[in-house]
Automatic annotation (TrEMBL):
UniProt xrefs under InterPro entries: Asp_de-COase-like_dom_sf (IPR009010), CT_DMSOR/BSOR/TMAOR (IPR041954), Molybdopterin_N (IPR041460), MoPterin_dinucl-bd_dom (IPR006657), Mopterin_OxRdtase (IPR006656), Prok_Mopterin_Oxidored (IPR050612)
GO cellular component: outer membrane-bounded periplasmic space
Domain of life: Bacteria
GO biological process, one term: anaerobic respiration
Similarity-based family: Belongs to the prokaryotic molybdopterin-containing oxidoreductase family.
Record protein name field: Trimethylamine-N-oxide reductase TorA
Pfam family, one: Molydop_binding
Molecular function (Gene Ontology), one example: electron transfer activity
Cofactor: Mo-bis(molybdopterin guanine dinucleotide)
Length: 766
């Protein structure tokens, strides 16, 4: 039977109704090992089998000590009782505090499937009930999403169809400079589903065509070995300074595309004055950049010359913008590409997020696929996605966001469905304090992860293996059937079944379900897609599609796409961008008018709050890189077989340079303590010179396992880096997360090594 996931499509082997194993599809050239590991998690002891209510909440006890969220026992209840509690609580909070007191900004990847999209189901349900406070942007790319519309126009994600695809790069490009690297581990995934992994082979094709790669990253393995990339181990958070040093070299040597800058951009003269020091007295030359970045002084002018004289492409990965002033490297990378002379030429110029998802650079998009109809949210309030702890701790406070002043709402009920805030949010001890503030937290979960343990009401949900759906991934031109492989564990129900039952109690079941069953919805959405595409796609009827294990292919989209840089270069008057000037905004009058001291009118070097040149580095001399894991998607299937195999004595691995390890007496396989003033966690040491000295790498996604749950400041036994990262917006413009601006130290752990309990359910009473 076909299985579609964010990390690829597989085949499930089922015997007598029991899931035996999950195998890669035969036509996938680079299948992810995450898929087969799903089997071990399907029925492990961490499954939520019945509705459960936190004992203290049920009994009206104050949230202190052992009755706090995260530390309390749970009482299993019937579905009837659970649905009554949730519906009555929604009704009470709306009546007493208003619809904006309900937070439905539930954020996360959830699972693949066009109909069973967790956030879509939740938000439809809450909107029909009166509305909710939403969140805006993503933890992955908040700074990028806000800055790019100002600089190049278009919707936040429109750049995906405006940058070169890998085939074009192989044909026309000579030099790729990748800021943040091109880690293939990230290309395992694609939101919504993925038929075949293509990024590895497309990268290889580029190298075989003679394209040279430069990896600007603290981590050498951020590019595949077969790319033979030149490694420039840059001090974390200094990419903007390096780009400025390159730009200054281009300027003083005349190595820049004056025609393109004049016709297709605005504000280069003001930016040039900043480069030369006329604005602030600081010349941003190669010597200046070398002192900041740690890159050899002679390397910078050489790279500037190569970018200008060769057909070049500047890539930026998402990691570099999840940092203090994260908008700046994104903005500056566009400016550098405009100066270099390749922007708007085939296979060259600028792009973002290559290898972050398999579809990026593989296809410019796909035809629209029907999904559960959205309902307009009657509540206008929203918060920037990474400011949830601020909102809970300081209701009524005001913050800046993209030229607006937002008043943080007073949230009384959190409804979380399809995400794990105790994975993706920064400074988990601060989040612990904030999470005690709302009156009620409702969570849909399949496993007793940290978010479930920090809830008041936990409703068990079916996994993607336990329901009918079809997958349509981001930009991936395939539809893949997802028939149910197994029955839901215990008393689990689908999110849709739960919301339909709640809507019935609240008086709007018919509006929510439109009188369709789940399989009727799946058939309806497929039929809508088929009708919308018409003869161009010639999709089979549903019954044939449902039996087609390899899925069906949608017609390819062809350009030019709105906002095309090629069209802009050819005729900026005829093909303007949607920026205020119609051109690329090297200087943005709009951003300048906001008056932000941490994001001015042109790309600027701002010293990070935490970096290796900061005074704090005297106490915490290692820069923490908390990048994406190779063994799972974020925190999904951390309890799966593949992720569990990657652990060291049950802890998440942390990679440290042998020089830093030797000075601390650390050897391979040791349990170490990673710490700063915000918290500490245990991890298993891996020594490797693929990480530059002064840097440690600890991937995100290990289920948080505080030794004293519910109590802020306690040791994490498992290795979640967000125990250590700072919870501050990267600037007043985007308020995005700044996870990659964090200093730590590491030491051999000589305390009692307690058992990891991340996958152990809380105490359950019946």
């Amino acid at each position: 039977m076909p299985v579609a996931t964010h990390w690829g499509s597989f085949v499930a082997v089922v015997d007598s109704g029991q899931l035996v194993r999950i195998e890669p599809r035969g036509d996938d050239p680079a299948p992810s090992p995450i898929g087969p590991g799903m089997v071990t998690a399907a029925e492990d002891s961490a499954r939520v089998l019945r509705p459960a209510v936190r004992k203290g909440w049920l009994n009206g006890l104050p949230r202190v000590d052992e009755t706090a969220r995260g530390a309390d026992a749970f009482v299993e209840v019937s579905w009837d009782d659970a649905l009554t509690l949730v519906s009555e609580e929604l009704r009470r909070v709306r009546a007493q505090h208003g619809d904006n007191a309900v937070f439905g900004g539930s954020y996360g990847w959830a699972s693949a499937g066009g109909f069973h999209n967790a956030q879509g189901q939740l938000q439809r349900f809450l909107a029909l009930g009166g509305g909710y406070t939403d969140s805006r942007n993503t933890y992955s790319t908040a700074a990028l999403e806000v800055i790019l519309p100002h600089v190049i126009g278009g919707a936040p994600w429109s750049y995906q169809s405006r940058m070169p695809m890998w085939d074009e790069i192989a044909e026309s490009c000579e030099l790729v400079v990748a800021f943040g690297g091109l880690a293939l581990k990230n290309s395992q995934i694609n939101p919504g589903g993925l038929a075949r992994h293509q990024t590895r082979d497309l990268q290889r094709k580029c190298r075989e065509a003679g394209v040279r790669f430069v990896n600007v990253s603290p981590i050498r393995s951020d590019t595949a070995d077969f790319l033979d990339a030149e490694w420039l181990p840059v001090i974390p958070n200094t990419d903007t300074a390096l780009m400025l040093g390159i730009a200054h070299t281009m300027l003083v040597n005349g190595w820049y595309d004056e025609d393109f800058l004049t016709r297709c951009c605005v504000g280069f003269d003001r930016f040039a004055s900043y480069l030369t020091g006329d604005v602030d007295g600081v010349v941003k030359d190669a010597d200046w950049a070398a002192r900041i970045t740690g890159i050899d002084r002679d390397t910078i002018p050489d790279l500037a010359r190569r970018l200008f004289t060769q057909r070049s492409l500047i890539m930026v990965n998402y990691a570099i913008q999840r940092a203090d002033h994260g908008e700046q490297p994104i903005w500056m990378s566009v400016v550098l590409a405009a100066m270099a002379g390749s922007l708007g030429r085939p296979g060259c110029g600028w792009g973002a997020g290559y290898a972050t998802m398999d579809a990026t650079g593989v296809a410019p998009g796909r035809p629209s696929v029907a999904s559960m109809p959205r309902v307009a949210n009657p509540v206008a309030d929203f918060i920037p996605v990474a400011r949830i702890a601020d909102t809970l701790l300081e209701p009524g406070a005001t913050i800046d966001y993209d030229g607006q002043r937002l008043t943080l709402p007073d949230l009384r009920l959190i409804y979380w469905c399809g995400g794990n805030p105790f994975h993706h949010h920064q400074d988990l001890h601060r989040l612990t304090r904030a999470w005690q503030r709302p009156e009620t937290v409702v969570v849909h979960e399949a496993w007793w992860n940290t978010t479930a343990k920090f809830a008041d009401i936990v409703l068990p949900v079916a996994t993607s293996l336990e329901r009918d759906d079809f997958a349509a991934g981001f930009s991936d031109p395939h539809l893949v059937a997802m028939p149910k492989v197994r029955e839901p564990a215990g008393e689990a129900r689908t999110d849709h079944q739960i919301f339909a039952a709640l809507a019935a109690r609240l008086g709007y079941e018919r509006e929510f379900t439109q009188a369709r069953s789940e399989i009727e919805w799946v058939r309806h959405l497929y039929a809508q897609t088929r009708a919308n595409l018409g003869d161009e796609a010639a999709l089979p009827d549903f019954d044939d599609f449902w039996q087609h294990a390899s899925g069906v292919e949608l017609p390819a989209l062809s350009g030019p796409f709105p906002g095309s840089f090629e069209a802009l270069r050819s005729d900026p008057q005829r093909f303007p961008l949607t920026t205020p000037s119609g051109r690329i905004e090297i200087f943005s009058e709009e951003i300048d008018s906001f008056g932000y001291d941490d994001c001015t009118g042109h790309p600027t070097w701002f010293e990070p709050v935490e970096w290796l040149r900061a005074d704090l580095a005297d106490r915490f001399p290692l820069h923490l890189i908390s990048n994406q894991p190779a063994s799972r998607l974020h925190s999904q299937y951390d309890n799966g077989g593949h992720s569990l195999k990657s652990k060291i004595q049950g802890r998440e691995p942390v990679t440290i340079n042998p020089q830093d390890a030797a000075s601390r007496g650390i050897e391979n396989g040791m349990i170490v303590r990673v710490f700063n003033d915000r918290g500490s966690c245990l991890a298993g040491a891996i020594l490797s010179d693929a990480v530059m000295p002064g840097v440690v790498q600890l991937s995100t996604g290990a289920w948080w396992d505080p030794a004293q749950p519910g109590r802020s400041g306690t040791l994490d036994r498992h290795g979640n880096p967000n125990t250590l990262t700072g919870d501050r917006g990267c600037s007043r413009l985007s308020q995005g997360p700044s996870a990659h601006s964090a200093l730590v130290d590491v030491q051999v752990y000589d305390g009692p090594v307690e058992e990891v309990r991340a996958f152990t359910p809380p105490h359950l009473e019946h």
